[in-house]
Amino acid sequence: MRMINLGCGNSYHKDWVNIDFVSHKKEVLSYNLLKGIPYPDNYFDVVYHSHLLEHFTKTDAIFFIKECYRVLKPQGIIRTVVPNLEKIVDNYKKYLDLTLTGDKSAEKIYDWIMLTLYDQCVRNQSGGEMLKIIKDKKIYNKILYKDTGYFYNTTKKNKFDNNSNQSFLPKIKPIIKKFIPVRKIRIFLKKLKNNIPKGKYRQLGKFRLSGEIHQWMYDRFSLTRLLQQCNFKKPKVYKANESEIKNWDKFFLDTKTNGSIRKPDSLFIEAIK
User: Fold this and answer.
1) What is the value of pTM for the model shown?
2) Residue range(s) defining the domain that contains residue 20
């Protein structure tokens, strides 16, 4: 079987083709997935990606899922894992109600859930407010993991390369070259580059385009609909340790070797081509 793990980060298996935007391991290939998947049509039996799709815009997500469909063989399986918006919202309501009764321990979890909803979308520096809370391990880690399953390592390096976003400059060069002499093109591009805000604004823009922030969130309905819009059939929700993928329990992609779930706040959906 040919199996590919997209946006794998540090979670990969030697029996798979493993790709990420930036590779720090020899087992992982480096490729900008915003440009597609660098393999021919009908090539893989399985396509898997975890906590990757939410980092794409809605438009890029459609293109990416269509690419997954393209490289899969007929009857091939896609397994998509994302943060579970439905679970987050359910817990938000639960701990909001408890907080309103004066429960101080519930208030701490309420604050964390609010960050889960928004911090990864609005943060302007790596780790955001979530990183500050995670560092205070005595107060938060055990209770958050036990009650919500939200605690995970946000200190790992970004999945996306800072230069992964496609620039519009290469697209306009062939157009303007037909009408403007080369010397004037160079002057124009130099002025355009110099007009980019410097200092903190440039750093802010670089971070916001780095890929760390969440661009969208999904629940059972919206992710199922997205897969169906891209021609996938029979989408179904699974547990972390359940799959139609052969020998799934041997790869330890959604679970750890001790049987625990690697990212408990997840939604797991599979579909077929």
Assistant:
1) 0.76
2) 3-84+213-272
On whether the CB atoms of residues 43 and 88 are closer than 8 A, the answer is: no
The dihedrals phi and psi of 109, each to the nearest 5 degrees, come to -70, -35
Q: How many domains does the chain have?
A: 2
First-last CA distance in the chain: 16
Task: Clarify whether residues 60 and 24 are in a common domain.
Answer: yes
Q: From CA 36, how far away is CA 34, in angstroms rounded?
A: 6
Q: Where are the beta strands (DSSP E) in the chain?
A: 3-6, 17-20, 28-30, 44-50, 72-83, 233-238, 266-272
Give 262's contacts (C-beta < 8 A, 6+ positions apart): 11, 240, 252, 253, 254, 255, 256
Higher pLDDT, 140 or 73: 73
Same domain as 68, residue 12: yes
Asked whether 141 and 134 are in contact (CB, 8 A), the reply is yes
Q: Per residue in 148-182, pLDDT tens?
A: 554 433 333 333 333 333 333 334 344 434 444 45
Say yes or no: 237 and 191 in one domain: no
